[in-house]
Amino acid sequence: MSQEHFPAVGGDTLTACLRHWAAVKPGEPALTFADFATEPAGRRRTLTWRQLADRVEATAAALPVRPGDRVAVLCPQGTDYVTGFLAAIAAGAIAVPLFDPGLPGHAGRLAAVLADCAPTAAVTTSAVRSAVEEFAGGGVEVVAVDAPGPARSWPVPEADPDDVAYLQYTSGSTRNPAGVVLTHANVLANVTQAVQGLGLDPAAATTVSWLPLFHDMGLVLGLITPLALGLRSVLMDPLAFVERPVRWLELLGDHAGAWSAAPNFAFHYCATRIRDADRARLRLGRVTAIVNGAEPINPGVLDRFHAAFAAAGYRPEKTRPAYGLAEATVFVTTGPAAAPRVTTFDRDALATGTARPAADGVRLVACGVPAGQEVALVDRETGTALPDGEVGEIWVHGPNVGAGYWRKPLESTETFGARLAGDKRPWLRTGDLGVRYEGELYIAGRIKDLIIVDGRNHYPQDVEATAASADPAIRPGSVVAFAIDGTDTENVVVVAEHRTHADLAEPAERALAAAIRRLVSDAHGLALRDVLLVPAGRVPRTSSGKIARSACRDRYLAGDYGKALAR
Question: Which keywords are on file for this protein (predicted)?
Fold first, then answer.
Protein backbone atom coordinates (compact mmCIF):
# COMPACT_ATOMS: atom_id res chain seq x y z
CA MET A 1 0.00 0.00 0.00
CA SER A 2 1.59 3.27 -1.07
CA GLN A 3 1.83 6.55 0.78
CA GLU A 4 -0.79 8.30 -1.34
CA HIS A 5 -3.39 6.21 0.47
CA PHE A 6 -2.34 8.04 3.66
CA PRO A 7 -1.78 11.66 2.57
CA ALA A 8 -1.65 12.96 6.15
CA VAL A 9 1.08 10.67 7.47
CA GLY A 10 4.87 10.69 7.15
CA GLY A 11 5.36 7.25 5.58
CA ASP A 12 3.81 3.89 4.82
CA THR A 13 5.28 2.16 7.90
CA LEU A 14 5.76 3.33 11.47
CA THR A 15 9.54 3.20 11.04
CA ALA A 16 9.33 5.30 7.88
CA CYS A 17 7.22 7.88 9.73
CA LEU A 18 9.84 8.22 12.47
CA ARG A 19 12.65 8.65 9.95
CA HIS A 20 10.63 11.19 7.98
CA TRP A 21 9.89 13.49 10.91
CA ALA A 22 13.44 13.15 12.27
CA ALA A 23 14.67 14.44 8.90
CA VAL A 24 12.01 17.12 8.34
CA LYS A 25 11.99 18.69 11.83
CA PRO A 26 14.87 17.19 13.82
CA GLY A 27 15.01 19.87 16.51
CA GLU A 28 11.30 20.16 17.22
CA PRO A 29 9.79 18.42 20.29
CA ALA A 30 8.33 15.02 19.51
CA LEU A 31 7.55 13.68 22.95
CA THR A 32 7.18 15.15 26.44
CA PHE A 33 6.64 13.11 29.58
CA ALA A 34 5.34 14.96 32.65
CA ASP A 35 6.92 13.06 35.55
CA PHE A 36 4.84 13.67 38.67
CA ALA A 37 6.61 10.93 40.61
CA THR A 38 9.81 12.97 40.95
CA GLU A 39 8.25 16.43 41.19
CA PRO A 40 4.71 17.31 42.35
CA ALA A 41 4.44 19.91 39.58
CA GLY A 42 5.48 17.36 36.98
CA ARG A 43 9.05 17.42 35.72
CA ARG A 44 8.99 17.71 31.93
CA ARG A 45 11.28 15.35 30.01
CA THR A 46 11.29 16.13 26.29
CA LEU A 47 12.82 14.38 23.29
CA THR A 48 13.14 16.01 19.88
CA TRP A 49 12.39 13.99 16.77
CA ARG A 50 16.12 13.46 16.16
CA GLN A 51 16.76 12.41 19.74
CA LEU A 52 13.86 9.95 19.64
CA ALA A 53 15.05 8.47 16.34
CA ASP A 54 18.61 8.08 17.65
CA ARG A 55 17.43 6.32 20.81
CA VAL A 56 15.17 4.02 18.82
CA GLU A 57 18.01 3.15 16.44
CA ALA A 58 20.43 2.37 19.28
CA THR A 59 17.95 0.11 21.07
CA ALA A 60 16.84 -1.61 17.87
CA ALA A 61 20.43 -2.41 16.99
CA ALA A 62 20.93 -4.17 20.34
CA LEU A 63 17.90 -6.45 20.00
CA PRO A 64 18.94 -10.01 19.05
CA VAL A 65 15.88 -10.65 16.90
CA ARG A 66 14.96 -11.59 13.37
CA PRO A 67 11.82 -10.78 11.33
CA GLY A 68 8.73 -12.27 12.95
CA ASP A 69 10.21 -12.56 16.44
CA ARG A 70 8.17 -10.99 19.20
CA VAL A 71 9.55 -8.36 21.55
CA ALA A 72 7.64 -7.73 24.78
CA VAL A 73 7.59 -4.07 25.83
CA LEU A 74 7.81 -4.18 29.64
CA CYS A 75 8.73 -0.57 30.41
CA PRO A 76 7.12 1.83 32.85
CA GLN A 77 5.08 4.62 31.25
CA GLY A 78 7.30 7.33 29.78
CA THR A 79 9.77 8.16 27.01
CA ASP A 80 11.51 4.80 27.47
CA TYR A 81 8.27 2.99 26.70
CA VAL A 82 7.88 4.87 23.42
CA THR A 83 11.52 4.17 22.55
CA GLY A 84 11.24 0.47 23.36
CA PHE A 85 8.04 -0.03 21.38
CA LEU A 86 9.40 1.69 18.27
CA ALA A 87 12.77 -0.06 18.63
CA ALA A 88 11.13 -3.48 18.53
CA ILE A 89 9.44 -2.56 15.25
CA ALA A 90 12.55 -0.88 13.83
CA ALA A 91 14.49 -4.08 14.54
CA GLY A 92 12.15 -5.95 12.21
CA ALA A 93 10.37 -7.76 15.03
CA ILE A 94 6.76 -7.69 16.20
CA ALA A 95 6.22 -5.45 19.22
CA VAL A 96 3.95 -6.62 22.04
CA PRO A 97 2.95 -3.59 24.16
CA LEU A 98 2.59 -4.75 27.77
CA PHE A 99 3.62 -3.42 31.18
CA ASP A 100 6.33 -3.98 33.75
CA PRO A 101 5.70 -6.83 36.21
CA GLY A 102 5.29 -4.37 39.06
CA LEU A 103 1.80 -3.31 37.95
CA PRO A 104 -0.38 -4.45 40.88
CA GLY A 105 -2.99 -7.12 40.29
CA HIS A 106 -2.07 -8.09 36.73
CA ALA A 107 0.77 -10.61 37.08
CA GLY A 108 -1.48 -13.47 35.98
CA ARG A 109 -2.53 -11.69 32.82
CA LEU A 110 1.06 -10.76 31.99
CA ALA A 111 2.21 -14.35 32.41
CA ALA A 112 -0.62 -15.58 30.16
CA VAL A 113 0.21 -13.09 27.43
CA LEU A 114 3.93 -13.90 27.52
CA ALA A 115 3.13 -17.60 27.24
CA ASP A 116 0.86 -16.88 24.27
CA CYS A 117 3.21 -14.65 22.26
CA ALA A 118 6.48 -16.43 23.24
CA PRO A 119 8.81 -13.43 22.91
CA THR A 120 12.43 -13.81 21.90
CA ALA A 121 13.36 -10.59 23.68
CA ALA A 122 11.98 -7.92 25.97
CA VAL A 123 12.72 -4.22 26.31
CA THR A 124 12.60 -2.49 29.67
CA THR A 125 14.62 -0.02 31.77
CA SER A 126 17.64 -0.54 33.99
CA ALA A 127 15.56 0.24 37.07
CA VAL A 128 13.26 -2.76 36.60
CA ARG A 129 15.49 -5.01 34.50
CA SER A 130 16.12 -7.57 37.24
CA ALA A 131 12.39 -7.89 37.95
CA VAL A 132 11.68 -8.36 34.25
CA GLU A 133 14.42 -10.99 33.87
CA GLU A 134 13.06 -12.92 36.84
CA PHE A 135 9.47 -12.74 35.58
CA ALA A 136 10.24 -13.55 31.92
CA GLY A 137 12.50 -16.46 32.79
CA GLY A 138 15.23 -18.03 30.68
CA GLY A 139 15.17 -17.85 26.92
CA VAL A 140 14.09 -14.20 26.78
CA GLU A 141 16.90 -11.70 26.13
CA VAL A 142 16.24 -8.51 28.09
CA VAL A 143 17.54 -5.19 26.72
CA ALA A 144 17.43 -1.97 28.75
CA VAL A 145 16.38 1.03 26.69
CA ASP A 146 18.59 3.40 28.72
CA ALA A 147 21.63 1.08 28.39
CA PRO A 148 21.06 -1.03 25.26
CA GLY A 149 24.53 -2.53 24.88
CA PRO A 150 26.43 -3.50 21.71
CA ALA A 151 24.83 -3.76 18.29
CA ARG A 152 24.10 -7.12 16.71
CA SER A 153 25.94 -8.21 13.60
CA TRP A 154 23.14 -8.79 11.07
CA PRO A 155 21.19 -6.11 9.14
CA VAL A 156 17.50 -5.28 9.47
CA PRO A 157 15.34 -5.71 6.34
CA GLU A 158 13.21 -2.78 5.21
CA ALA A 159 9.67 -3.02 6.57
CA ASP A 160 6.70 -3.46 4.26
CA PRO A 161 3.26 -1.92 4.96
CA ASP A 162 1.74 -5.39 5.14
CA ASP A 163 4.24 -6.60 7.75
CA VAL A 164 2.91 -7.13 11.26
CA ALA A 165 3.82 -4.12 13.41
CA TYR A 166 2.52 -5.29 16.78
CA LEU A 167 0.14 -7.55 18.67
CA GLN A 168 -2.53 -5.67 20.63
CA TYR A 169 -3.71 -7.93 23.42
CA THR A 170 -7.35 -7.42 24.30
CA SER A 171 -8.28 -6.39 27.80
CA GLY A 172 -10.03 -9.65 28.60
CA SER A 173 -13.29 -8.16 29.90
CA THR A 174 -15.34 -11.03 28.45
CA ARG A 175 -12.75 -13.72 27.70
CA ASN A 176 -9.07 -14.59 27.97
CA PRO A 177 -6.76 -12.03 26.32
CA ALA A 178 -5.95 -12.61 22.67
CA GLY A 179 -3.35 -10.84 20.54
CA VAL A 180 -4.85 -8.88 17.64
CA VAL A 181 -2.45 -8.97 14.68
CA LEU A 182 -2.05 -5.43 13.32
CA THR A 183 0.02 -4.44 10.30
CA HIS A 184 1.58 -1.07 9.56
CA ALA A 185 -1.13 -0.55 6.94
CA ASN A 186 -3.92 -1.31 9.44
CA VAL A 187 -2.60 1.17 11.95
CA LEU A 188 -1.85 4.04 9.57
CA ALA A 189 -5.24 3.61 7.94
CA ASN A 190 -6.89 3.97 11.34
CA VAL A 191 -4.92 7.13 12.11
CA THR A 192 -6.22 8.72 8.93
CA GLN A 193 -9.77 7.54 9.65
CA ALA A 194 -9.69 9.00 13.16
CA VAL A 195 -8.33 12.35 12.02
CA GLN A 196 -10.97 12.57 9.29
CA GLY A 197 -13.76 11.48 11.61
CA LEU A 198 -12.79 13.95 14.32
CA GLY A 199 -12.09 16.74 11.86
CA LEU A 200 -8.71 17.50 13.44
CA ASP A 201 -6.13 19.80 11.88
CA PRO A 202 -2.83 17.88 12.14
CA ALA A 203 -0.88 21.11 11.60
CA ALA A 204 -2.21 22.66 14.81
CA ALA A 205 -2.67 19.77 17.23
CA THR A 206 -0.96 18.26 20.27
CA THR A 207 -2.02 14.97 21.82
CA VAL A 208 -2.22 14.76 25.63
CA SER A 209 -2.76 11.41 27.32
CA TRP A 210 -2.58 9.65 30.68
CA LEU A 211 -3.89 6.37 29.27
CA PRO A 212 -1.55 3.37 29.63
CA LEU A 213 0.47 2.79 26.47
CA PHE A 214 -0.27 -0.94 26.54
CA HIS A 215 -3.98 -0.16 26.03
CA ASP A 216 -5.20 0.23 22.44
CA MET A 217 -6.61 3.75 22.88
CA GLY A 218 -3.58 4.92 24.85
CA LEU A 219 -1.15 3.48 22.32
CA VAL A 220 -2.83 4.94 19.24
CA LEU A 221 -3.57 8.32 20.85
CA GLY A 222 -0.37 8.85 22.79
CA LEU A 223 2.20 7.22 20.50
CA ILE A 224 1.09 6.17 17.03
CA THR A 225 -1.06 9.13 15.92
CA PRO A 226 1.57 11.75 16.80
CA LEU A 227 4.26 9.56 15.23
CA ALA A 228 2.30 9.23 12.01
CA LEU A 229 1.34 12.90 11.74
CA GLY A 230 4.43 14.53 13.20
CA LEU A 231 2.55 15.90 16.22
CA ARG A 232 3.90 16.59 19.67
CA SER A 233 2.77 14.03 22.22
CA VAL A 234 2.47 14.90 25.92
CA LEU A 235 2.21 11.90 28.25
CA MET A 236 1.76 11.30 31.94
CA ASP A 237 1.50 8.18 34.10
CA PRO A 238 -1.99 6.79 34.79
CA LEU A 239 -1.24 6.80 38.52
CA ALA A 240 -0.54 10.54 38.36
CA PHE A 241 -4.02 11.01 36.94
CA VAL A 242 -5.63 8.86 39.63
CA GLU A 243 -3.79 10.77 42.36
CA ARG A 244 -4.79 14.20 41.00
CA PRO A 245 -7.05 14.20 37.92
CA VAL A 246 -6.64 17.96 37.51
CA ARG A 247 -3.14 17.28 36.18
CA TRP A 248 -4.60 15.90 32.95
CA LEU A 249 -6.78 18.95 32.38
CA GLU A 250 -3.91 21.29 33.25
CA LEU A 251 -1.72 19.65 30.61
CA LEU A 252 -4.55 19.99 28.09
CA GLY A 253 -4.82 23.69 28.84
CA ASP A 254 -1.07 24.18 28.48
CA HIS A 255 -1.16 23.39 24.76
CA ALA A 256 -3.30 25.23 22.20
CA GLY A 257 -5.17 22.80 19.96
CA ALA A 258 -4.70 19.90 22.38
CA TRP A 259 -6.88 16.84 22.12
CA SER A 260 -7.18 13.69 24.16
CA ALA A 261 -9.29 10.61 24.84
CA ALA A 262 -10.50 8.83 27.95
CA PRO A 263 -13.11 6.30 29.09
CA ASN A 264 -16.35 7.49 30.66
CA PHE A 265 -15.17 6.96 34.24
CA ALA A 266 -12.47 9.62 33.77
CA PHE A 267 -15.10 12.25 33.00
CA HIS A 268 -16.95 11.32 36.19
CA TYR A 269 -13.71 11.26 38.16
CA CYS A 270 -12.77 14.77 37.05
CA ALA A 271 -16.24 16.19 37.64
CA THR A 272 -16.40 14.86 41.21
CA ARG A 273 -12.77 14.97 42.40
CA ILE A 274 -11.40 18.31 41.13
CA ARG A 275 -11.87 21.15 43.60
CA ASP A 276 -13.40 24.50 42.70
CA ALA A 277 -10.11 26.29 43.35
CA ASP A 278 -8.31 24.01 40.89
CA ARG A 279 -11.06 24.37 38.30
CA ALA A 280 -10.68 28.16 38.38
CA ARG A 281 -7.11 27.87 37.09
CA LEU A 282 -7.92 25.68 34.09
CA ARG A 283 -7.83 26.96 30.50
CA LEU A 284 -9.99 24.46 28.69
CA GLY A 285 -11.10 26.84 25.96
CA ARG A 286 -7.85 25.88 24.21
CA VAL A 287 -8.88 22.23 23.97
CA THR A 288 -9.87 20.97 20.53
CA ALA A 289 -11.57 17.72 21.56
CA ILE A 290 -11.73 14.96 24.16
CA VAL A 291 -12.88 11.61 22.83
CA ASN A 292 -15.08 9.58 25.17
CA GLY A 293 -14.81 5.88 24.37
CA ALA A 294 -13.66 2.40 25.49
CA GLU A 295 -16.65 1.80 27.78
CA PRO A 296 -20.39 2.65 27.92
CA ILE A 297 -21.00 6.39 27.93
CA ASN A 298 -23.27 7.70 30.66
CA PRO A 299 -25.23 10.81 29.59
CA GLY A 300 -25.55 11.98 33.19
CA VAL A 301 -21.77 11.90 33.57
CA LEU A 302 -21.38 14.05 30.46
CA ASP A 303 -23.85 16.56 31.86
CA ARG A 304 -21.91 16.79 35.12
CA PHE A 305 -18.56 17.15 33.34
CA HIS A 306 -19.84 19.89 31.06
CA ALA A 307 -21.37 21.81 33.96
CA ALA A 308 -18.28 21.41 36.13
CA PHE A 309 -15.88 22.88 33.56
CA ALA A 310 -18.03 25.37 31.70
CA ALA A 311 -16.45 28.28 33.58
CA ALA A 312 -13.02 27.01 32.50
CA GLY A 313 -14.02 27.41 28.86
CA TYR A 314 -15.00 23.82 28.10
CA ARG A 315 -18.00 23.48 25.80
CA PRO A 316 -20.11 20.33 25.24
CA GLU A 317 -19.20 20.18 21.54
CA LYS A 318 -15.60 19.46 22.54
CA THR A 319 -16.71 16.05 23.88
CA ARG A 320 -16.69 13.49 21.08
CA PRO A 321 -18.42 10.18 21.90
CA ALA A 322 -16.82 7.33 19.99
CA TYR A 323 -16.95 3.59 19.49
CA GLY A 324 -14.03 1.31 18.74
CA LEU A 325 -12.23 -1.90 19.62
CA ALA A 326 -8.76 -3.41 19.41
CA GLU A 327 -9.75 -5.74 16.55
CA ALA A 328 -10.29 -2.64 14.37
CA THR A 329 -7.01 -1.07 15.66
CA VAL A 330 -9.14 1.18 17.88
CA PHE A 331 -11.31 3.77 16.11
CA VAL A 332 -14.59 2.93 14.34
CA THR A 333 -17.12 5.77 14.77
CA THR A 334 -17.37 9.22 16.28
CA GLY A 335 -19.90 12.04 16.35
CA PRO A 336 -19.76 15.49 14.76
CA ALA A 337 -18.30 18.60 16.39
CA ALA A 338 -21.54 19.28 18.24
CA ALA A 339 -22.90 18.66 21.71
CA PRO A 340 -23.28 14.88 22.27
CA ARG A 341 -26.62 13.64 21.06
CA VAL A 342 -28.67 11.78 23.68
CA THR A 343 -31.83 9.88 22.74
CA THR A 344 -34.32 8.29 25.12
CA PHE A 345 -35.57 4.93 23.84
CA ASP A 346 -38.56 2.94 25.02
CA ARG A 347 -37.18 0.28 27.35
CA ASP A 348 -39.71 -2.41 26.49
CA ALA A 349 -39.23 -1.94 22.75
CA LEU A 350 -35.45 -2.03 23.12
CA ALA A 351 -35.75 -5.30 25.04
CA THR A 352 -37.41 -6.84 22.00
CA GLY A 353 -34.82 -5.49 19.57
CA THR A 354 -36.39 -2.25 18.35
CA ALA A 355 -35.24 1.31 19.04
CA ARG A 356 -38.24 3.61 19.48
CA PRO A 357 -37.90 7.06 21.04
CA ALA A 358 -39.95 7.73 24.15
CA ALA A 359 -40.45 10.41 26.77
CA ASP A 360 -39.16 8.06 29.45
CA GLY A 361 -36.89 5.06 29.17
CA VAL A 362 -33.25 4.27 28.38
CA ARG A 363 -31.00 7.25 27.60
CA LEU A 364 -28.25 6.36 25.14
CA VAL A 365 -25.48 8.53 23.74
CA ALA A 366 -24.95 8.54 19.97
CA CYS A 367 -21.46 7.45 18.91
CA GLY A 368 -21.62 8.99 15.45
CA VAL A 369 -20.70 7.50 12.09
CA PRO A 370 -17.72 5.62 10.66
CA ALA A 371 -14.97 7.27 8.65
CA GLY A 372 -13.14 5.30 5.97
CA GLN A 373 -14.77 2.01 6.96
CA GLU A 374 -18.18 0.33 6.88
CA VAL A 375 -20.44 -0.58 9.78
CA ALA A 376 -23.44 -2.91 9.55
CA LEU A 377 -25.99 -3.97 12.18
CA VAL A 378 -26.52 -7.66 11.64
CA ASP A 379 -28.90 -10.44 12.65
CA ARG A 380 -26.42 -12.92 14.11
CA GLU A 381 -28.51 -15.95 13.16
CA THR A 382 -28.97 -15.14 9.48
CA GLY A 383 -26.04 -12.81 8.75
CA THR A 384 -28.52 -10.33 7.27
CA ALA A 385 -28.01 -6.58 7.59
CA LEU A 386 -30.79 -4.98 9.62
CA PRO A 387 -32.57 -1.73 8.79
CA ASP A 388 -32.18 1.39 10.91
CA GLY A 389 -34.00 1.14 14.21
CA GLU A 390 -33.37 -2.58 14.81
CA VAL A 391 -30.83 -3.86 17.33
CA GLY A 392 -28.16 -6.17 15.97
CA GLU A 393 -24.54 -7.16 16.28
CA ILE A 394 -22.09 -4.50 15.07
CA TRP A 395 -19.97 -5.71 12.15
CA VAL A 396 -17.06 -3.72 10.68
CA HIS A 397 -15.22 -3.83 7.36
CA GLY A 398 -12.26 -1.63 6.48
CA PRO A 399 -8.48 -1.40 5.99
CA ASN A 400 -8.02 -0.86 9.73
CA VAL A 401 -9.40 -4.28 10.72
CA GLY A 402 -6.67 -6.60 11.98
CA ALA A 403 -5.58 -9.83 10.32
CA GLY A 404 -6.84 -12.05 13.16
CA TYR A 405 -5.72 -13.30 16.56
CA TRP A 406 -2.17 -14.46 17.06
CA ARG A 407 -1.99 -18.22 16.49
CA LYS A 408 -5.70 -18.71 17.02
CA PRO A 409 -7.01 -19.75 13.59
CA LEU A 410 -10.46 -20.92 14.68
CA GLU A 411 -11.20 -17.81 16.74
CA SER A 412 -9.78 -15.66 13.96
CA THR A 413 -12.07 -17.16 11.34
CA GLU A 414 -15.11 -16.80 13.59
CA THR A 415 -14.39 -13.19 14.51
CA PHE A 416 -12.61 -11.73 11.46
CA GLY A 417 -14.08 -13.88 8.70
CA ALA A 418 -17.82 -13.31 9.07
CA ARG A 419 -19.83 -13.17 5.85
CA LEU A 420 -22.66 -10.71 5.42
CA ALA A 421 -25.52 -12.10 3.35
CA GLY A 422 -24.88 -11.21 -0.30
CA ASP A 423 -21.34 -9.98 0.38
CA LYS A 424 -18.23 -12.12 -0.15
CA ARG A 425 -15.92 -9.78 1.76
CA PRO A 426 -14.80 -10.69 5.30
CA TRP A 427 -16.36 -8.71 8.13
CA LEU A 428 -15.34 -8.30 11.75
CA ARG A 429 -17.90 -9.51 14.29
CA THR A 430 -17.44 -7.21 17.26
CA GLY A 431 -19.56 -9.02 19.83
CA ASP A 432 -21.25 -5.69 20.59
CA LEU A 433 -24.92 -4.89 20.20
CA GLY A 434 -25.98 -1.62 18.65
CA VAL A 435 -28.60 0.19 16.65
CA ARG A 436 -28.43 2.85 13.95
CA TYR A 437 -30.99 5.56 14.58
CA GLU A 438 -31.30 8.67 12.42
CA GLY A 439 -27.93 7.93 10.89
CA GLU A 440 -25.87 7.52 14.08
CA LEU A 441 -24.69 4.43 15.94
CA TYR A 442 -25.85 3.75 19.49
CA ILE A 443 -24.21 1.03 21.59
CA ALA A 444 -26.54 -1.29 23.51
CA GLY A 445 -23.98 -3.60 25.16
CA ARG A 446 -21.88 -6.75 24.85
CA ILE A 447 -23.60 -9.87 23.53
CA LYS A 448 -21.88 -12.04 26.16
CA ASP A 449 -23.02 -9.68 28.92
CA LEU A 450 -26.63 -9.54 27.75
CA ILE A 451 -29.12 -10.61 30.43
CA ILE A 452 -32.06 -12.63 29.06
CA VAL A 453 -34.93 -13.30 31.44
CA ASP A 454 -38.22 -14.80 30.27
CA GLY A 455 -37.27 -14.09 26.66
CA ARG A 456 -36.61 -10.37 27.24
CA ASN A 457 -33.25 -8.70 26.73
CA HIS A 458 -31.83 -6.51 29.49
CA TYR A 459 -28.65 -4.53 28.98
CA PRO A 460 -26.44 -4.78 32.08
CA GLN A 461 -25.22 -1.18 31.99
CA ASP A 462 -28.85 -0.03 32.10
CA VAL A 463 -29.54 -2.16 35.20
CA GLU A 464 -26.26 -0.99 36.74
CA ALA A 465 -27.17 2.67 36.25
CA THR A 466 -30.53 2.09 37.95
CA ALA A 467 -28.86 0.36 40.91
CA ALA A 468 -26.28 3.14 41.26
CA SER A 469 -29.03 5.73 41.54
CA ALA A 470 -30.22 4.23 44.85
CA ASP A 471 -27.59 6.01 46.97
CA PRO A 472 -24.94 8.69 46.28
CA ALA A 473 -22.43 6.56 48.18
CA ILE A 474 -22.65 3.80 45.57
CA ARG A 475 -19.66 4.28 43.30
CA PRO A 476 -20.76 5.04 39.69
CA GLY A 477 -18.96 2.78 37.26
CA SER A 478 -18.39 0.25 40.04
CA VAL A 479 -21.69 -1.61 39.86
CA VAL A 480 -21.99 -4.95 38.08
CA ALA A 481 -25.14 -6.74 36.96
CA PHE A 482 -24.90 -10.27 35.58
CA ALA A 483 -26.95 -13.40 35.11
CA ILE A 484 -26.51 -16.86 36.57
CA ASP A 485 -28.32 -20.06 35.73
CA GLY A 486 -31.67 -20.59 37.43
CA THR A 487 -34.18 -23.42 37.53
CA ASP A 488 -36.41 -22.12 34.75
CA THR A 489 -34.74 -18.91 33.59
CA GLU A 490 -31.67 -16.79 34.30
CA ASN A 491 -31.38 -15.11 37.68
CA VAL A 492 -29.87 -11.65 38.04
CA VAL A 493 -27.31 -10.52 40.60
CA VAL A 494 -26.08 -7.00 41.38
CA VAL A 495 -22.75 -6.29 43.07
CA ALA A 496 -22.17 -2.65 44.01
CA GLU A 497 -19.23 -0.89 45.61
CA HIS A 498 -20.18 1.44 48.47
CA ARG A 499 -17.81 4.23 49.50
CA THR A 500 -18.57 3.97 53.24
CA HIS A 501 -19.31 0.27 53.39
CA ALA A 502 -17.25 -0.22 56.57
CA ASP A 503 -19.47 2.27 58.40
CA LEU A 504 -22.74 0.93 57.01
CA ALA A 505 -24.79 -0.72 59.76
CA GLU A 506 -26.58 -3.95 58.86
CA PRO A 507 -30.12 -2.45 59.01
CA ALA A 508 -29.04 0.40 56.71
CA GLU A 509 -27.37 -2.05 54.36
CA ARG A 510 -30.51 -4.18 54.15
CA ALA A 511 -32.64 -1.10 53.53
CA LEU A 512 -30.35 0.02 50.71
CA ALA A 513 -30.42 -3.44 49.14
CA ALA A 514 -34.21 -3.37 49.29
CA ALA A 515 -34.22 0.05 47.63
CA ILE A 516 -32.05 -1.31 44.80
CA ARG A 517 -34.44 -4.22 44.35
CA ARG A 518 -37.44 -1.86 44.13
CA LEU A 519 -35.77 0.46 41.64
CA VAL A 520 -34.67 -2.38 39.37
CA SER A 521 -38.06 -4.04 39.58
CA ASP A 522 -39.92 -0.83 38.76
CA ALA A 523 -37.61 0.20 35.90
CA HIS A 524 -36.84 -3.18 34.32
CA GLY A 525 -39.39 -5.66 35.60
CA LEU A 526 -36.57 -7.75 37.06
CA ALA A 527 -36.64 -9.53 40.41
CA LEU A 528 -33.03 -9.62 41.57
CA ARG A 529 -31.83 -12.88 43.08
CA ASP A 530 -29.06 -11.25 45.10
CA VAL A 531 -27.81 -7.75 45.94
CA LEU A 532 -24.33 -7.47 47.42
CA LEU A 533 -22.83 -4.24 48.71
CA VAL A 534 -19.05 -4.42 48.90
CA PRO A 535 -16.18 -2.09 49.84
CA ALA A 536 -14.40 0.01 47.23
CA GLY A 537 -11.99 -1.96 45.09
CA ARG A 538 -13.87 -5.28 45.24
CA VAL A 539 -15.33 -5.09 41.73
CA PRO A 540 -12.74 -6.61 39.36
CA ARG A 541 -11.49 -4.60 36.42
CA THR A 542 -9.49 -5.29 33.31
CA SER A 543 -5.99 -3.84 32.83
CA SER A 544 -7.58 -0.92 30.96
CA GLY A 545 -9.94 -0.07 33.84
CA LYS A 546 -13.20 -1.53 32.52
CA ILE A 547 -15.41 -3.49 34.89
CA ALA A 548 -14.96 -7.21 34.24
CA ARG A 549 -18.46 -8.67 34.50
CA SER A 550 -17.45 -12.26 33.82
CA ALA A 551 -14.72 -12.10 36.49
CA CYS A 552 -17.20 -10.60 38.96
CA ARG A 553 -19.63 -13.40 38.18
CA ASP A 554 -16.87 -15.97 38.78
CA ARG A 555 -16.07 -14.39 42.15
CA TYR A 556 -19.71 -14.44 43.14
CA LEU A 557 -20.11 -18.11 42.22
CA ALA A 558 -16.91 -18.93 44.13
CA GLY A 559 -18.36 -17.30 47.24
CA ASP A 560 -15.74 -14.52 47.40
CA TYR A 561 -18.37 -11.92 48.29
CA GLY A 562 -19.85 -13.89 51.16
CA LYS A 563 -23.57 -14.22 51.72
CA ALA A 564 -26.01 -11.97 49.95
CA LEU A 565 -28.39 -9.79 51.90
CA ALA A 566 -31.69 -11.44 52.68
CA ARG A 567 -34.67 -10.22 50.76
Answer: Fatty acid metabolism, Ligase, Lipid metabolism
DSSP H or E segment with residue 378: strand 374-379
Strand partners, 207: 233, 259
The domain in which residue 359 lies consists of: 341-446
Q: What is the largest CA-CA distance in the chain?
A: 72
**How far, in whole angstroms, is CA 462 from its chain's centroid?**
20
C-alpha–C-alpha distance, residues 339 and 337, integer Å: 7
Sign of CA dihedral 389, 391, 392, 397: positive
Q: Quick one: 98 and 231 in the same domain?
A: yes
pLDDT tens string 484-516: 876 556 789 999 999 888 888 888 888 999 999
62 located within any domain: yes
Number of domains in the chain: 4
* CB burial of residue 559 (10 Å; 0-12, 13-18, 19+): exposed
The answer to whether the CB of 91 falls within 8 A of the CB of 58 is no
219/108 same-domain check: yes
Tens-digit pLDDT profile for residues 174-192: 457 799 999 999 999 999 9
CATH number of the domain at 428, please.
2.30.38.10
Query: Is 356 found in the same domain as 214?
Result: no
Q: Please tell me whether residues 72 and 93 are part of one structural domain.
A: yes
Same domain, 215 and 119: yes
Query: Tell me, what amino acid is at 321?
Result: P
Same domain, 309 and 203: no
- Kindly give the pairing relationship between strand 474-484 and strand 491-498: antiparallel
CA–CA distance, 228 with 443 (Å, rounded to integer): 29
Mapped to the 3 state alphabet, what secondary structure does 271-287 carry?
HHHCCHHHHCCCCHHHC
The C-alpha atoms of residue 263 and residue 296 are separated, in whole angstroms, by 8
* 453-456: Cβ within 8 A, 24+ apart: 453/483, 453/489, 453/490, 453/492, 453/526, 454/489, 456/351, 456/352, 456/525
